[in-house]
Amino acid sequence: MRFGCHGYACPVSHQSYLFLANAVLALHASVVLFIVAGLMLVLLGGRRKWQWVRNGTFRVLHLAAIGYVVMQSWLGIVCPLTDLEQWLRQRAGAPLHEGDFISFWLGKLLFYHAQPWVFIAVYSAFALAVVYSWVIVRPGRLKRRIGIDVAGSAGVGPVFVREVERGKETVQLGRVMQILAELGVELQAAVPDEVKETLSALKAKGVKPFTPRKKTAPAPKAVAGQEKQ
Questions:
Q1: pTM beyond 0.70
Q2: What's the confidence (pLDDT) of residue 144?
Q3: Is 70 exceeded by the pLDDT of residue 11?
Q4: TM segments (predicted)?
Q5: Which residue has the higher pLDDT, 100 or 112?
Q6: Domain limits, the chain
Q7: Neighbouring C-beta atoms of residue 106, cutoff 10 Å
Q8: Those residues with Cβ within 8 angstroms of residue 107's Cβ, 6 or more apart along the chain or in another chain
Q9: Cα torsion at 139, 143, 146, 148 (round to 10°)?
């Protein structure tokens, strides 16, 4: 073979080009699987409380992947992976999307005939579904800090959120639970059997749960030197 080797025999063989073409096609199939399966797992994980589907990096990469596909379809740009695979198959002297077992079956999954507008409609609809998944299954922040946006949606102030982030020991448990609920975190407490028996006995005796008293405002102090009317 003499493909750009300046008169010398090219060290890359036909089989090497074919292997690289199959590897590119497998990578192409992996990207498609990531986009399609990613949305399904996000929707399923949202219902089953899987925290990993809220990973910010995973969700951004997933959205960027389908966004790139939609941009290609609207602009009529051929995928670079497809161009690379075609070039490698030409160098290998193999028919495009035909040949050995791997290329044939992966090609069957990725390449099929349809009008261009069908692809544009399908890709765009799928992208809208991915965007909608950000609404019903909110991803976590890319940074470790919770931020003001979570504070607002959880109904607490940003100052309280910063106190929680800093590990302040004296915070209101109810407000902390609001933040955890907004982030999709659930807490479960296991009550020992002996405690359950004690609580049941107290309840049978008519003992009511302790209700904290409301603090009353102190009476205003008299101003020094003010005479009584």
A1: no
A2: 46
A3: no
A4: 17-44, 56-77, 117-137
A5: 112
A6: 14-136, 148-182
A7: 19
A8: 25, 97, 98
A9: -100
Rounded Cα distance between 132 and 149, Å, is 19
Is the pLDDT score of 106 beyond 90?
no
Give the position of tokens 């209700």: 211
The one-letter amino acid at 180 = L
Q: What is the DSSP string of 148-178?
A: HHHHHHHT--HHHHHHHHTT-SS--HHHHHH
As a whole number of angstroms, the distance between CA 156 and CA 178 comes to 8
The C-alpha angle 205, 206, 208, rounded to 5 degrees, equals 130
Rounded CA separation 16/91 (Å): 10
**Angstrom distance (rounded) from CA 55 to CA 139:** 6
Residue 99: predicted pLDDT: 42
Three-state secondary structure string covering 46-73: HHHCCHHHHCHHHHHHHHHHHHHHHHHH
Mean pLDDT for 151-158 is: 71
| Residues 6+ positions from 32 with CB-CB distance below 8 Å | 109, 110
